[in-house]
Amino acid sequence: YSAWSMRRSSARPGARCVRRGPVVRLILTRLAVFVVPATALWALLPLIASRQLGLGSAGYGVMFGALGVGAILGALLLGRIRRWLSAHSLLTVASVAYGAAFGALAFVPDAVAGVPVPVVAGACWTAVAATLNAELQLFLPGWVRARAIAIYLMTFTGAQALASPLWGVLTQVTSLRLAIGVAAALVVGGGLAGLVRYGGAALDH
User: From CA 110, how far away is CA 44, in angstroms rounded?
Assistant: First the structure.
């Protein structure tokens, strides 16, 4: 009982920081606004590979591997990109590029044209997640940083877990192409909404 009480009391400062800190709430909100629709790519990729591109398991593996390659490239290039773009601008550009790449998957005619698209999406996924994570760590004082990062990871994985089945249901009741279009539009809309709503001041501290 005492150990549980200690863990619960140590988590309270992190929860208070999230509730009372507008910048922390902004970061977590932007994370959720991106991840909920962007997760559709990961959830629907098997269907995209089989139905849209006519690929088997090996082809799906190539498509999934392309996402991984893009994620690695995004991590390698992120430092250089940050020299030219602020955190807010990078989030907007990466969100719009991710949505555009994802939406393009609904219209690519074959695997040759389709494989480069997940590379772009993977790079943008890493750019958004890493930028928001870094901004959160830079903003928070050291004594509460680990607790707030735990809340960040809970938001990240929780949004994925909740959104993935919803995109599957939408695909089942409508169509794969419509589900892709809706998710892509929401990713782009979320990026542009951040540009209009916040103007970058809160993140670019």
Answer: 17
